[in-house]
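User: Can you help me understand a structure? I only have the sequence.
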Amino acid sequence: MSTTVSGKSGTWRNWAGNVTARPVREVTPASVDELSAAVRKAAEDGLTVKAVGTGHSFTAAAATDGVLIRPQLLTGIRKIDRTAMTVTVEAGTPLKRLNMALAREGLSLTNMGDIMEQTVSGAISTGTHGTGRDSASIAAQIKGLELVTADGSVLSCSEHENPEVFAAARIGIGALGIVTAITFSVEPVFLLTAREEPMTFDRVTADFEELFTENEHFEFYWFPHTGNCNTKRNNRSAGPERPVGPIRGWIEDEFLSNGVFQVVNLLGRAVPAAIPSMARLSSRALSARTYTDIPYEVFTSQRRVRFVEMEYAVPREALVETLRELKSMVDRSSLRVSFPVEVRTAPADDITLSTASGRESAYIAVHMFRGTPYQEYFTAAERIFTAHEGRPHWGKVHTRDAEYFTKVYPRFGEFTALRDRLDPDRRFANDYLRRVLGS
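Assistant: Let's start by predicting it. Here is the structure, written out as tokens:
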């Protein structure tokens, strides 16, 4: 999966190509001291500052017309503490490198999102999550954070040190400072057995509570215009390790899930009327399979087909009703949707602006192939999600503003008050943050 592109004219683009920015200057600091100096210099010049990761957000959370900080030199593991079972990692480290380095040390994160391309700081700042009955988002696995604040000073926080900053900055959307290092909780590496199996929409929704309760990690994809789903159950295993074989892996994960899927989407974009029949074929292309491997090999997959995405967290008890409403909306409409809808879960956590803050949550993600008009579909879906007090993912397309978030986040005022304290001059502001947090 490609990272962000910076054109010759100094234009920055995100992965999906739906967000662009033209910063006054770009800085690639080689140390925390250099980063602090860049923030102080921006203040002297009256410029705003934003750090970008690999641009996997679909929102303009990282866009700036001021100073763009690229963290690719702030990478690597600072420290592994086997007594505390933590790892401290530099903010610009890609999740892929962190996972591979941990595996070599016989360690693992407890849970992961479904891709590894993001930087660790980008992933946590927007609330990246996987699926889990008991284990939550990547940010919920954080034990400590270091960030450069608006005056250029370095602030450390944890449950014991600056706990009010720790409560908010684990998912800070770049509003409180620039994260420079993260301390994650880790555990000895373990094995997961994945069971992937086609299932009907009616059966998944009827048995959802049971499927959720009986599995450590349950997720599924529903194919619009069909009554078909693909389910995935991941549970800890005593082994032995039985990874997907190289040939089957290439056929299913590369050829079908990326190569053929790309062609199907290109065809669907050219001939939308063909999408429902292609969806019926796509939804039957993958057969059941079971494999056992180390966590990141099971949790994550390659996503080469580019898309635009909206994702909302609804209360878990509202999931089935919300999903049925979404299906009936698509069935009744003239929409043609070639991408499956992804459904995952997370336990409640204690992070101020986490989409799972204070409530057990289920996530519904809708996607459209890049270059296809998505507004009508996303608007109709968003209407359904917000009727259930949905909370949009901070890094995915949505139209909500601060007024809405005040209603769906009980601790929203706590976050904005902390922002007033840490960044009174709005050094880290941009249009997106003004909309979602207020000015």
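Now, to help you interpret it: The first strand starts at residue 5 and ends at 6. The chain has a mean pLDDT of 93. Let me know which part you'd like to focus on.
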